[in-house]
Amino acid sequence: MKYKAFNIEYESYGQRACLPKEIEIEVPNDCDDVMEFISDEISNKTGFSHSGFEYYYCATSAEIKKFLNSFCTKVRKNESSAHVELMMDNHKCIEFLKKQYYVPEENSSYSPTDELIYEHLIENYSL
Questions:
Q1: What share of the chain is helix, strand, coil (3-state, %, to 5)?
Q2: Rounded Cα distance, 14 and 114, in Å
Q3: Which end of the chain has less neighbouring CB within 10 Å, N or C?
Q4: pTM here?
């Protein structure tokens, strides 16, 4: 599973170095502690320790399309305001590849990966 680490706060101890502000890291599916794995990989890839970072899951287009087809409802043209209001009670609205979707805020059928895809969609494609 691919993650992106960003806002990395390096501990360069006065050394002048051109360090990346963000890094993509492939995390094994069976990893128990994603944050610790990413932390170690930042140090391994750059040769510098750090005092913190932020990260997010990088969902692939195929994963997103599967998620949209499984859980989401396409926004239709000319929907009544009552329908939109009803949908927005427990959905978020996103736009992906020029199509708008209602995304359920909570779904007991979401797998852990689905939860990550949901967060990715809301973070990057919300209207």
A1: 35, 30, 35
A2: 42
A3: C
A4: 0.73
Q: Are 103 and 121 in contact (CB under 8 A)?
A: yes
Phi, psi of 14 (to 5 degrees): 85, -10
How far is the CA of 5 from the CAs of 9, 41, 71, 103, 110, in angstroms? 11, 10, 28, 25, 24
The CB density around residue 116, as the number of other CB atoms within 10 Å, is: 20
**Per-residue pLDDT reduced to its tens digit, 30-51:** 998 999 999 999 999 999 999 9
| Cβ–Cβ < 8 Å for 49, 111 | no
